[in-house]
Structures are given as C-alpha cells and as structure tokens.
C-alpha cells in the first residue's frame, strides 16, 4: 500500500544515543540501541525516500538492516556536539527531519586528557562537573526551511497502570509545546518496552496535540505508522 509514497523525499533521521567522554576510555551514555531510528530509515528507503542516517554509537549488527540499502547514507556519530553539527549540515537538504536519537542532556565540563586512575585520586572519589548540552531539536526548529517537517521523540517511563497512556500523552503534549515540532512520537520505555527490545508502542501527536497516529508492534510497524503521519504532514504543507 505504502510502496513509493515517499518517492524522492529527502529525509534526515538520527538514531542511537550520544556518548559524552569523561576521559580517553570512559563516557556517559544511555541505553538507546538505535533500533527505532534504523527501522524508520529502512522503512523510509523502502517507500522511496533518500535517507541520511546519523547513527550515534549504533551497533553494526543493528545497522545491518540499512547497510544493503543504497538509498540510506549512514554517518557515524559520537557526541552530542558532533550530532548537532552533522544535523545542522544535513538538515538544509532535507524535506523532513526525524530526531529519534537519545541526546545526552549534559556533557562533562572538562574531559580528562589522560585516564583517571584510582592511584591518583588519593582515596577520594572524583566529582564530575557537568554542563548542559544544547537542545538540537529546538535549534533545528528555529533554523527550519519553509515547508520542512520536523519530528521529535519523547521516550517516557510510566507506571504500568490503566491511566498510564493518559499520563504519557499529557507529558507528550507538554514536550510538544516546549519543542515546537510538527509531530511528536511518544513512546513508553522501561525495562521491557522501548530501548533494547524489538517491540514498541507509540502515539504520534500533531502540532495541536491531537493523536495523529497510534501503533504497537515491531519497531518496523511503528516506523511505518510514523512515516504515514510524516507523509500526510508533507502533503498538507505543500498544498
Ligand atoms: O527533552 P527530551 O530529551 O525528552 O526530548 C526528546 C527529543 O528531543 C528527541 O527527539 C531528542 O532527539 C531531542 N533532543 C535533542 N537535543 C537534546 C535533547 C533531546 O535534540 N539535547
């Protein structure tokens, strides 16, 4: 049904999680595997899009899903600063941006030039001073070209109760307002759902906070549902 509905559309997708160095051998990271972003890139390519995939520390085994697709250009990324620079460079040539990467909110203020050794800290536990990273998504929204569709992700942990989805959507709507994106993909993460598993559950909110799509299933199914909303948004903006 969807084959070719994104023909020739240029898409920027970010995936994975940034790593912020502490010293030459250590970093602050997160548990994002990159699977959801990679699934979006693969699904988009299958539907005719040309994709730049900024892959932040994504395992080669996960990237295997797009390596054989000529329509996906994979750019490896390490830190939030690298992701920001690459995202701004690639965004100008994209009709839509899908920001699925988990970006570290903070980085280490002063990265140690040499490995921090226990012997050198005289029995005192060292203190890490952190500084805030820029919000890449907000920067992209500010600099967006006319007609460009920008999609953010909100990965939230919620209690496994019956009103968990309401809480999820409520938090999503607040995030939507803060970020100024056209679409926000809201999903529940936890120890069993989200980050490292293949299954996912997701709502797509439009700029007015309405549910524009809903999906649950494999990350591929979720990716296709999200891309439906992006396609509809692109069509609406071009009319
Ligand atoms: O505020 P929060 O981190 O939950 O927002 C998630 C969304 O914002 C994701 O799309 C993520 O890629 C993006 N983000 C960003 N730069 C940051 C933090 C988050 O682009 N520093």
UniProtKB/TrEMBL annotation:
Example of a GO cellular component annotation carried by this entry: phosphopantothenoylcysteine decarboxylase complex
Associated pathway: Cofactor biosynthesis; coenzyme A biosynthesis; CoA from (R)-pantothenate: step 2/5; Cofactor biosynthesis; coenzyme A biosynthesis; CoA from (R)-pantothenate: step 3/5
Keyword Plastid: no
Domain DNA/pantothenate metabolism flavoprotein C-terminal as annotated: residue spans: 6-231
GO BP term (any one): pantothenate catabolic process
Annotated spans, Phosphopantothenate--cysteine ligase: 11-239
EC number(s) on file: 4.1.1.36, 6.3.2.5
Statement: the UniProt record of this protein carries the keyword Magnesium: yes
Protein name: Coenzyme A biosynthesis bifunctional protein CoaBC
Organism lineage: Bacteria, Bacillati, Actinomycetota, Actinomycetes, Micrococcales
């Amino acid at each position: 049904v969807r084959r070719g509905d994104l023909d020739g559309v240029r898409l920027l997708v970010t995936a994975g999680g940034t790593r912020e160095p502490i010293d030459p051998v250590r970093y602050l990271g997160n548990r994002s595997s990159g699977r959801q972003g990679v699934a979006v890139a693969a699904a988009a390519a299958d539907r005719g899009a040309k994709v730049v995939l900024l892959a932040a520390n994504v395992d080669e085994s996960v990237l295997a899903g797009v390596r054989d697709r000529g329509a996906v250009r994979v750019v490896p990324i390490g830190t939030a600063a690298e992701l920001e620079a690459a995202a701004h460079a690639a965004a100008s040539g994209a009709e839509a941006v899908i920001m699925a990467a988990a970006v570290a909110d903070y980085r280490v203020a002063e990265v140690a030039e040499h490995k921090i050794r226990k012997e050198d800290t005289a029995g005192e536990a060292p203190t890490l001073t952190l500084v805030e990273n820029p919000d890449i998504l907000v920067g992209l929204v500010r600099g967006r070209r006319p007609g460009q569709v920008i999609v953010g992700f909100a990965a939230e942990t919620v209690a496994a109760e019956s009103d968990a989805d309401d809480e999820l959507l409520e938090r999503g709507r607040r995030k939507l307002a803060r970020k100024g994106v056209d679409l926000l993909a809201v999903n529940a993460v936890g120890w069993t759902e989200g980050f490292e598993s293949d299954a996912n559950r997701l709502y797509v909110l439009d700029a007015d906070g309405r549910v524009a799509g809903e999906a649950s299933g494999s990350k591929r199914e979720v990716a296709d549902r999200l891309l439906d909303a992006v396609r509809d948004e692109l069509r609406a903006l071009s009319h």
